Amino acid sequence: MRAIEFDSNNRFTVLVTRLLILFGVLFLWWLGTHQKWLSPFFFGDPLGVAVRIVDWFVTGSIYRHLYTTLVETMLAFVIGTVLGLACGLWLALSPFLATVFDPFIKAMNSMPRLIFAPIFALWFGLGIWSKVALGVTLVFFVVFFNVFQGVREVSPTVLSNTRMLGANSRQLLRHVYLPSATSWVFSSLHNAIGIAFVCSVVGEYLGSEKGVGYLILLAEGVFDINSVIAGILVLTVFALILDTAVSMVEDHLLRWRPVAGQTVATSA
Predict the structure, then answer these.
(1) What pTM value is reported for the model?
(2) Could you tell me the fold of the domain covering 45-253?
(3) Would you say 167 and 157 are in contact if contact means Cβ atoms under 8 Å apart?
């Protein structure tokens, strides 16, 4: 029985299908507003949104806002990931400390961290660091729990066999624990990048002088729905770009993983 492979033809079909869905949604949006089935005041005009996005990039007015939001997002993403990875490995390899800190970690994770945004604004001001701090509090736990679980899921048999071969603690960390945790880490990073974006925008809503979230807030204040939707679309596109970058790094570092659906073919 031959395994079904996902060849280039299938990838092309997927791409075409995605584009058809995208343009279909845009067409229905345009048709609804053009025929007055949907009020352009509340739902915007797709052509007006496109013109607004082009105008932002042609005039360059969006660059400083976009740069600020991307810097906030990347700092929150990197710092939260590094802290989550370090603490996850540390507690996963220290069962006693993991048991001691367990209720504290659960308590902190259960807190609605978005309510800390005004507090961070008081502590760090209205610059980028209050948004970064907010993003770190969310990204950290996403990465932490995945790393912690990934290390704890290492097979005892693999550990025993590796120790029998004479591996020390550092070699175990490098060749057993880290490869096990890496898969879990990358599964969390796709969520973490989106969370970092959300935190940056929420922080800009609560208090800032630049950023795409601030730009959207100004547009909402004058009921400019086209600018609101344009800002949301710009953020979405750049979030997808960053997520694609994470996927490329993941594919490069985890080349040893078997690809789903491409197991060794057997014949009956």
Answers:
(1) 0.77
(2) MetI-like fold (1.10.3720)
(3) no
